[in-house]
Amino acid sequence: MEKINSTQNAKIKYWKKLQTKKGRKKENKYLLEGWHLVKEALMVDAKIEYLLVTNDFRYFDDIINTEIEQVEISSEVSLYLADTSTPQGIYAVVKMEENRQLTIDNLAGGWLMLDGVQDPGNIGTMVRTADAAGLTGVIFGEGSADSHHPKVLRSMQGSQFHIQLVNADLMEVATVFKENHIPLYGSELNEDARSYREIPAAANFGLIMGNEGNGMRNDLLNTTDANLYIPIKGRAESLNVAIAAGVLMFQLKA
Amino acid sequence: MEKINSTQNAKIKYWKKLQTKKGRKKENKYLLEGWHLVKEALMVDAKIEYLLVTNDFRYFDDIINTEIEQVEISSEVSLYLADTSTPQGIYAVVKMEENRQLTIDNLAGGWLMLDGVQDPGNIGTMVRTADAAGLTGVIFGEGSADSHHPKVLRSMQGSQFHIQLVNADLMEVATVFKENHIPLYGSELNEDARSYREIPAAANFGLIMGNEGNGMRNDLLNTTDANLYIPIKGRAESLNVAIAAGVLMFQLKA
Fold first, then answer.
1. Above 70 in pLDDT, residue A60?
2. How far apart are CA A71 and CA B94, in angstroms?
3. Which domains, ranges and CATH numbers included, belong to chain A?
4. pLDDT above 90 for B253
5. Strand, coil or helix: what is B55?
6. Residue in B121, B129, B232 nearest the CB of A239
7. Above 80 in pLDDT, residue A51?
8. Does B189 touch chain A (CB under 8 A)?
9. Are strands B69-73 and B48-54 parallel, antiparallel or unpaired?
């Protein structure tokens, strides 16, 4: 097994770049960190290019038999690659799925769409919830945080292996939904909008969630079949966007 | 107005202690940080003892007319007191509400109970959601993170001023609910538990959420009228605890 002890090593520098959006986009790969997430990637047979492991990694015996190429790294290299401050000492270099084009042939099911959602923790939690609620995928519109940001990876807990993550222009997606007569719902903090409880659960639908502070873009609000509101019964000004998405997805998905 | 420029000042050292659980418990006060939260405290007439403000604080004119005692602090002192890395330069020293004893006379409404929930961000979001869903309060059981932890304060967005936050032994609380024939629900990740959709919405109820990794304690699970399960339709292993609490509270509260 190859051993790398220097953060100046060219391979390490290359993998470190995968912790940036630019690096991920260029190489179409990302770095998965921590045993829980790497184990999930191994179990679902994700396209893993390398496993990077420190020699004191606890579960070494569990991975030693895989055919995936392994590289032993020093603790110093591990810290350099890590997004967390106390890394476990295991990483996987994973190839991203190709970005899917949404057409009538693959539009079946429930879709969550993100219009400028910015907090990576919120986004990861929303993907994990979409997975749990039985949705087909999550569409990342312009202005939303990157789907493979290290914090998104941590909070989505492997759901990128279970459901589709797609980057697309949401105005174009809205047109495809409209043309195919699939209900498309927006969400807004507006008591005059339609209460989410009035909407029957369905097999196929799209649900758009907006930016944490500003909500959905107006032009997008105008393209939907209905914009939904979760009635606030207490004195809170609003709901966290991931909570709102959770309540709506479990209501809408049949 | 008093001006303090040194982190060695006795008052500053005293207020700094309020950023720890021990300090808050001893003094029965906490430090609120940032304009959004302080503004909320001013609006609801919270028991504010002092406002601490840097001289370059942007909204200085908005607070100058309050009768609350103000102290001008240097940027260095502000950074020393802050829990965030880029503080806005405003703090309020707030007196905590007295811990409430739960009796039949004040048990009306919906109550969320936390059994060993540990992540402050999750907890704050759950309090904010309980507020939005119209619950009466949140009961912090043993082993849950502190209700006035700086990160809890940030994610609950002022909901401590809207609903009750109570520290109590959940086994004793369960007994009070039982004696008064108020439905008490647990939650568990167990397909044999009762689907949450079968439970009718009600004005009065208790809902217990468990630890992120281990769920609820067994002895507490045994005291409930029913333990609820949110069916997972996809391949996610579980839901984030704050999302699960959100889905359940909006289902249960009439």
1. no
2. 53
3. 2-95 (3.30.1330.30), 104-252 (3.40.1280.10)
4. yes
5. coil
6. B129
7. yes
8. no
9. parallel
